[in-house]
Design a protein that fits this description.
Elements: H1 8-17, H2 27-56, H3 62-92
Helix pairs in contact: 2-3
Amino acid sequence: MALPHNGSKHRAAAARTASPDTPLINTSEDSTMHLLIALAFVVILACLAAAGLFMLRGNQSEAGSKRMAWALTLRIAISVLVFAGILLAWKLGYLQPHGIPLGA
């Protein structure tokens, strides 16, 4: 069983009064958050691939090194923003932890 979090009391009360067919979360907000996170990960991978291509080209010029450094810096910045965004979304209730099932 997952540990309770900020919205668990309200969700537990809603679960007792809602019908079995009624979802307990707003699926449109949930899917929007998942889409934004997936899109950010695609951008992170694209920045990493771009930096790899700049490195593999073997161009040791100043411009090639700056482009690789810029791509890696952008990747790190986006990663930090995604992490902070996930924490903020969890704190505001847009993302709900599912917990690890017992016995798994």
